[in-house]
Amino acid sequence: MKLILLSGGSGKRLWPLSNDSRSKQFIKVLSNKNNEMESMVQRVWKQLDSVGLASSSYIATSKSQSELIQSQLGEDVPIIIEPSRRDTFPAIALASTYLYSHVGISLNEVVAVLPVDPFVEDTFFNEVKELENILFHSKADIALIGVKPTYPSEKYGYIVPENTTRFSARYLPVQRFAEKPDQAGAERLIEQNAFWNCGVFAFRLGFLISLLERKRLPVQYEELTKQYGLLDKISFDYEVVEKCEKIVMLPYAGCWKDLGTWNTLTEEMQSHQIGKGSISKDSTNTHLVNELDIPVTIIGMTNAIIAASPDGILVADKQASPRIKDFVKNTELPIRYEERLWGWYRVLDYTKTEEGSEVLTKRICISANNNISYHFHRLRKETWNVISGRGLVKLENNIVSVSAGDVIQIPAGLKHAIKALTDLEIIEIQNGRLLEEDIHRLQRSWEEIADQSIVN
């Protein structure tokens, strides 16, 4: 069995800590067994490893999230990069062609698909492994996991099984699906023995490859990558699952949660406060998550979430906090904090002069033994002011040592890179036209960058 973990999302529901590059699965607010902060994706990957599935797992994600995945899980984690965001059917189709044409797995092998961020116990992933046996025993095209509801939720879709004993009690044939209902509808669905659809399913690889062939879509990964932008933006549920006639469901009665909103996420946080600040004793069921360097004080607030990051500040009643998505969904919000493979950066200031020149100031932290790629810009100049740590800077063919207090001027067109010997912090000032496409990367590894250089 191979696993495809879907890592997407636009980072709206946990704003301001989440954004387009750091979606909810990457926010480190959960505590592990050593009382260290970890993200949802780190927690899930450890669970997969504990049941022997990590070595068979691949993460399908966008280019903007790939570095963050490698930063949190390691550079060796298998990643399948989508050329653009086009919903779950294109993502799963692309990942399947990768397994077929790049990895070379058999068409009879089972592929399981699941979100990268479910909050579950380790036993849940044993159920994922069981999908392989159920798929072969039932002769179905798709096998799902349905979660036994604990309350009539309006947030989830539902799976309604057939009322039949023709199948083993271990799994049930699926009669139909129901979209997110209102409260009364959810109660009726539970009376019909419906289950929450947790977005976990399995199929034989040959099932999907045959489907792509019938749709006249490429089954070779390179070719589908070229045509990826032409695929419809549609979910796998709509395009495949709900049109399939042979579907069975594995019931699951254990713990399962989608920590996709502040009110659900704070239920699983071990501490009421992360970051600088204080919460008064008469503030009940109130959480503070603060990524800023300034303290936040909370007095006399009940059932509230206060979240602060360089991207903004949220103060909300927990039950109302899911509405944040409606407030920010049509707003272009600049990303002011981002984690990268080499460390992180935080935007301190941005301005645009009357002449049209842009000035962006960043605080950048490069973790020890990591480096920023060798690159250049045609439309902007940069100034690096080292504030702590030690490192090496390559400017064209010369490598120089830098430490706190050093200032490096980088004119437009000059090739440059920097490596941290210890944790290294710099203030970077960019001046000119600040376009993402003006980053011309030449080499990634420091071994390649340092080759044929003159060390001063």
Protein described:
- Residues 340-442 form the Mannose-6-phosphate isomerase type II C-terminal domain.
- This is Sugar phosphate nucleotidyltransferase.
- With 456 residues, this protein is of the alpha+beta class.
- The chain has eleven helices and 31 strands.
- It folds into three domains: 2-257, Spore Coat Polysaccharide Biosynthesis Protein SpsA, Chain A (Alpha-Beta Complex), CATH 3.90.550; 266-326, no CATH class; 342-455, Jelly Rolls (Sandwich), CATH 2.60.120.
- It has a six-stranded antiparallel β-sheet.
- Strand 25 (390-395) and strand 26 form a beta hairpin.
- Helix 3 (88-103) crosses helix 6.
- The mean pLDDT is 92.
In short:
With 456 residues, the chain is of the alpha+beta class.
Number of strands: 31
According to CATH, the homologous superfamily of the largest domain is Spore Coat Polysaccharide Biosynthesis Protein SpsA, Chain A
Report the CATH topology name of the largest domain.
Spore Coat Polysaccharide Biosynthesis Protein SpsA, Chain A
Could you tell me how far the N terminus lies from the C terminus, measured between alpha carbons in angstroms? 53 Å
Extract low-pLDDT stretches: none
Mean pLDDT: 92
> Any guess at the CATH architecture of the largest domain?
Alpha-Beta Complex
SS content category: alpha+beta
How many individual domains?
3
Q: Within the largest sheet, what's the order of strands?
A: 20-21-22-29-24-27
What is the highest CATH level, the class of the largest domain? Alpha Beta
Shape assignment: globular
Major sheet summary line: 6 strands, antiparallel
Helix content: 10-25%
The number of helical runs is 11
Name the beta content range: 35-45%
Using only CA atoms, what is the Rg? Answer: 25 Å
